């Protein structure tokens, strides 16, 4: 569970709750800064973290 974030057209990533606990809240449609932590091509998944956090 966490936040799903659109990072490009038809590409979404996930910020897990563990990475979002101490992070600011976000609203649907709001632009936020994230960094890519991992990409799993086989499962078509992108793991993200809030920009500026020490998560991962």
User: How is the biggest beta sheet arranged?
Assistant: 2 strands, antiparallel
Helix content: under 10%
Shape: globular
Q: How far apart, in Å, are the first and last alpha carbons?
A: 16 Å
**Structural class, from helix and strand content?**
mainly beta
* Continuous helix count: 1
Number of domains: 1
Q: Round the mean pLDDT to the nearest integer and report it.
A: 81
Protein name: S1 motif domain-containing protein
GO molecular function, one term: nucleic acid binding
Organism: Streptomyces lucensis JCM 4490
Domain S1 motif: 1-51
Polypeptide structure, described:
- By secondary structure, this protein is mainly beta.
- The chain has one helix spanning 17-20, and strands at 2-8, 11-16, 34-40, 45-50.
- The longest helix has 4 residues, at 17-20.
- β1 (2-8) and β2 form a beta hairpin.
- The protein is globular, with a radius of gyration of 11 Å.
- The protein has a two-stranded antiparallel ribbon with strand order 1-2. A two-stranded antiparallel sheet has the order 3-4.
- It is built from one helix and four strands, in the order ββαββ.
- It has one domain (2-50).
- This is S1 motif domain-containing protein.
- InterPro entries: NA-bd_OB-fold, S1_domain.
- It comes from Streptomyces lucensis JCM 4490.
